[in-house]
Amino acid sequence: MEGQYGAPFHFAVEFLVLVVALGGAFDALRARRNGAGRWAVGQALGFLTLAAAQFIHGALIRQADANTTVIALRAVAFGMLAFTARPAVALERAPLEPIIAASAMPALFFSGPHASIAVIPAVAAFAVATRGFHAHRIYRNPTTLAFTSAFGAFAIAEATTALSTPGTGALLIFAHCMRALGALLLARWLWTSIVQSVRLRFVAAFVAVLTIAVLIVSAALNVVIGNTLQTNELNRLLEAGSAREASIQNLGEGALVPAQITASSSAVVDALQKEQRLDLSGIFKLLPLDFVMLVDHNGKTLSAKENVPGRAARDLPVSESIGIVGQGVVQQARQGFPGQTALSVSFASGKSPVQSQILVVAASPAKQAGRVIGVVVVGYRIDRSFLLLVRQDTVADATILVGDQVSSTTFRSAATVSQAFSHIDFASAREIGTPLQRIVTIGGSQYVSAFVPVKANDGTVIGLLGLSRKSTTLADAQRNITRTLFLITLAVVLIAALLAWLSGGRVTKPIRSLTSAARQLRAGQLTARTRVESGDEVGTLGNAFNEMADELQRQTGQLQRSAATEATLRARMEAILQSMGDALIATDVAGTVVTFNRAAEEILRRRAQTVVRQPIADVMRGQAVTGRTLAEAAMIGGATEGTLSPADGSQLAVAMTAAPLVDSSGEPVGRVVVLRDVSREHEAERMKSEFLANVSHELRTPITPIKGYAEMMSRKKFPRAKEESFLAGILQSTERLERVVEILVDFAAMEAGRLKPRVEPVPVKDLVARLTDKWRQRDGEHRFVRKIGPDVPAIMGDPKLLGRSLDELVDNAVKFSPDGGQIEISAEPYANGSRSARNSRVRITVRDHGIGIEPEQMPDLFQDFRQGDGSETRSFGGLGLGLAYVKRIASVHGGDVIVESQPGKGSSFSLVLPAATAGRITEVTKRARKSR
Amino acid sequence: MNRARLKPLAGALVLTVGAGACIGGKSPGDTTALVVGRIIGAVQARNGTQQTWYTLKVGMHVPSGATVQVPPRGDVQLKRGTLSTVEMRPYQNQVGELKVVDAGNVALFAGDVLIKGDKQAPISVSSQGVTAQPTPSAGVEAPIFRFDRRVAIRVGVYTGEATITSLTGSLPIPTLREGVVAARALPRTATPLTIDKNDFWDKEFLLDVIDLDKTLDGQSSGYQQQFGATMRNWKEITKIAPGRDLGFITPYFQNTGSGDILIGTVFSLLLEQRARNGSAATYLGTLLALLDEGATWGLLAHEYLGENGEQAFEDAVTRAIALRSGDIHSPSGAIQPTQTPTATPSTTPSTQPTPSTKPTPSRSPRPSPSPSPRPSPTKSCLIPPIIC
Known about the structure:
Number of strands of chain A: 24
Strand content of chain B: 15-25%
Helix content of chain A: 55-70%
Radius of gyration of chain A: 69 Å
Shape of chain B: elongated
Oligomer: heterodimer
Strand order of the largest sheet of chain A: 3-2-1-6-5-4
Structural class of chain A: alpha+beta
Number of strands of chain B: 17
Structural class of chain B: alpha+beta
Radius of gyration of chain B: 26 Å
Largest sheet of chain B: 17 strands, mixed
Distance between the termini of chain A: 133 Å
Strand content of chain A: 15-25%
Number of helices of chain B: 7
Order of helices and strands of chain B: HEEEEEEEEEEEEEEEEEHHHHHH
Number of helices of chain A: 28
């Protein structure tokens, strides 16, 4: 593209695309550095290739828009971009080959001079645009739209370039407009990457401003220099035209002399006198005149010859001579005044169409004796021969216009003439008589034209002399300017971009440090700080950031500590709640369970996670003593008792306390319900009542015979034997009473921890023998059998307590054995399966063959106040403390009680006690000494 | 910047520009003043009765009541709106002067003015009790006419139609006609426009006419010198229309030069060929009558053949002379066959009474216009077959 504005426009567009392509390459390389895939390398190469094409073309190293090298580079560039178009998802969705094949089809219909190859970059760009479009369908954002549109514009630009010819300037302008649009859209696409970095923004802004400034300056320089050159060229051409127009006038002056000489010749005078024709063509041998005429005093042409170069002179067309004779200059000569002028004449001759021609005519009267007898007219044609001389002198095509019609020209093509003189208002030039200057583009080349009015001697404009020259000076100058400016501008922009990158790095370093610290802080690294040491706003910002981080760290620490404390407290509270013996249920205001501790789980037989967020009425079922449900009573509040119905269907006596929960402002936020299992208390109460009844019974039972015998003996004298019998009964009851009292005393002492057994070696044989003897004397209704092995060692114990324990066991055996039943009392070493421990313990067993014990009663055998039959109508007496007493005595001696029983067959109770080994004896002795 | 803030700024900018446009310019309907559009020379003005003259510049407003003075060889163009203008040029070396009565009326004291009056904003000019104003017509948006104040008042119309009003009445002046008012007495009819080849406006609007007249005058003169001033037999020019009986030109031999007869014959044949309706005899009579009234061949060609026809006419005359002189031999004669006859004249038809009805004493042998063979022009048709 050439011309005053075409060259700067071309320069601006190509440079813009170059800068954007370099930006694209930089962005791709940066993406690769940040971990992008191999596509980034391909994309960078694509953009660099595009930049190379722009450089070669923009710097006019390859000037033509359809240059093969430029086209090839663009095709390669767009092709690489098509294969590496981001994002990768689009690659899978948009196979490349069909796109290229489809888009290549229209190429068959291209008919431009470079269509066969120039269409390739268009196809490649279209492929990129298509892939971008697929990406846009997925991502639907302005960035992908800009990418797609950019390469769409490039495709249109390339296709238009392919269609254009050197003469189709409008197409090339359109192509460059589309290329510029593509560059701007691509810049918009790059903007998405640029805005992610302050440094890049800095560089982009710098480059953009610089590019715009440079382009403006370049365009201005181009225009100014171009204007100056054009003006100079036009002025030179105008001067040349004016000079030639002056030469036309001079021709007339020059022709006047031969006209006068001829008119004064005697031959002419004779011919005029005789009104005879006279051939004046001989004058052509002396002077380069084009025609000569002899006119009589009436204006009738007697002779008119024209000079035909290389041939004999011939008659001037009559129509032309008539036109000449009718002119004022000839009329004036007929009046006796010679004159010359340029004039336009129309004539027709032979088969040629009517022509209008400018002639330079000189007319001189021929006189005889002072009387005008005729006129000699000579002149020149301002025809193509004249114009060829003008062209030779001025190196410009010359044209003569008469009216609006071309009279003659040195242009070879009528189409060129038409283009050269299109849109030129010749009428105004003819009216005003001032020169015209124009620049027109013909066939892609600029022509400067100047039109000078050709005037008659009366000042009227009879035609225009046009000079047109191909403006090579301007084109060459613009080419040199463009090339130089392009290189300088590119260097300046690249250096500026580098400097901007470096200085931007320095400027943005604190910001990047701040960003890094902020990112670390965001990641939870509270110790992150920035090292911004400057006194400007960024320094202030850095300090503020560090202070903020300090504060954040301090507050976070406090929060962490508070959270830990709260967590501890919460855990403690949770532990308290969970370890509470009482069930605790908390609800919100609506009665929905929010807290449910472990005791509640046990009492209600439900898991906490299944009841939380359930209505309390569904969770806590049962009846209060007031007649309401427990849930209703809980909502009312206060303390009450009732029967709870846990999930397993059982019934449980509970004591319930309910109170409202209020927040710090006193507003109710829910209720708390505490349930306590009171069934054990009820059982203890029952056992206590039963114990008191038993004690009363056990105490009253021996007192009754004592009192009866004593009253009987006090009222009446009985025989000695009888009295002895009574006394024996009293003694027996007294012993029984004493035994009950002793057991109660020992039990109470043991409960109070005051019972200190006096341990000493106790021979088992003696112990068992005394026991057996004692019971044989006391109870004659049962048989007591003693079985003692020969090697039973003595045991360590308090003989008194052990005796009472064994006594209790035998008492139980007697109690639950039928009359006549055998009760066996045996003693043996007890090893419990271990041979080594055989002599370390002794097992003393009391076995009966009574009613035995049901298995379900076994766990409660050794509980206090527990009897096999606790009913009011029980068959067997006793305190219910016997076995508990035995168990405790065995425990305080370091022994144990073993029970074996078969219901209906009898039971055996074994007292396992430590044997009296030497070590134990020594230990006991030492302890006894110490206590003393 | 925030986009939300840009909108009110843009609105304010648009309002400012709009307000500026309204304040700075005058709408076409504005009648308060005229605006200076073009100036050549030191043109001065004086407001109302003030004695102080000031120099006008392009773009200045000339208020009502102002007097404008144009120096010799100066020029000023005053605009009313965008289409209507008053242009003033002094006559010869005098000073031109006019007064802007109001935006639609100008009083001329000395010099010539050219009025281009748009229908929306017409401008009338008056002087010595004679007023001329553009006449609205359907075909022409802005009639152009000139008003010369010299010994008499002359109103010539280049385009459209104007009306002259005086104490004695009014007279419409059609295109390419003029009316000369002397002592406030209106002429009976409008006459063909007198063309001065050195006049600026004639050159501006009728340069082709001037050129054509010059060419035809030369050819006519040369023809007469070569072949005699008087034609004796129509067969002398039979070569220009082979096989055609040109006897209808015979009545004009006595009072019309041979050159004009030749040109008139060519013109008539051309009209006949273009119209395909009407006879060359009729046309010749009408054309010569107009020529007698002061019209020129160029003016007639411009009026009835249009711009494209002028060149064809000139070529036809040249060919006719060449045929007559034997330079060329053409079986079709001077009038070349036309492929697509385009006879539309460049201007609107005249509505004035045809001047051919007037007696033409200088050319007495000419047959009376009313009887045949001359066509009887209707009131609105000068050359009926062509323009009606």
